[in-house]
Amino acid sequence: MRTILIGLSVPVALSVLALTVGAAIYLNNEPDQARAETTSSRYELDGDQVDVETNGAVDVKVKRGDGTGLHIIRTLRWTGNRHHSESWSDNRLTVSFDCERACSATYEMSLPQTTRLVVNGKPS
């Protein structure tokens, strides 16, 4: 009887060990590491107003300057899988950003002094 208990406990112990190791590998897997990416874009303006529509964890910061056009420096931070989309048409920038956890997108926008900026329907 004791042999049967020992025989049963070894496979159970091995199963627990395998699950523990598997969980540790999964939790330390590269896709779950925090990541960051900084990129930039420049868009030509056609008019004196830029409309920005955001969805998700997107923060817009504005810097006024003497240049022409819209210059964007975007910094994305995320953990796990992410979804980021951006489109520019008719002086309208549409941005969407989300991820599994701990994500943010910062859009630093440089605009000419005379260009109005409207973010999610509100003047900025």
Low-confidence stretches: 1-5
- Tally of alpha and pi helices: 1
Arithmetic mean of pLDDT: 84
The shape, in one word, is elongated
Total domain units: 2
Beginning-to-end CA distance, first to last residue: 78 Å
**What percent strand?**
over 45%
Helix content: 10-25%
Secondary-structure class: alpha/beta
N-to-C series of helices and strands: HEEEEEEE
Report the count of strand segments.
7
What is the rounded Rg?
Answer: 25 Å
**Largest β-sheet summary:** 7 strands, mixed
Overview of the structural elements:
This protein is of the alpha/beta class and 124 residues long. It has one helix at 2-27, and strands at 34-43, 49-56, 58-65, 70-89, 92-112, 116-119, 122-123. Strands 1, 2, 3, 4, 5, 6 and 7 form a seven-stranded mixed β-sheet that branches. β6 (116-119) and β7 form a beta hairpin. Residues 1-5 have low confidence and may be disordered.
Summarize the structure.
Helices cover 21% and strands 59% of the residues. It is α/β, with parallel strands linked by helices and 124 residues long. The model is unreliable at 1-5 (pLDDT under 50).
List the helices and strands and how they pair.
Elements: H1 2-27, E1 34-43, E2 49-56, E3 58-65, E4 70-89, E5 92-112, E6 116-119, E7 122-123
Parallel strand pairs: 2-5, 2-6, 3-5
Antiparallel strand pairs: 1-4, 4-5, 6-7
Protein name: Secreted protein
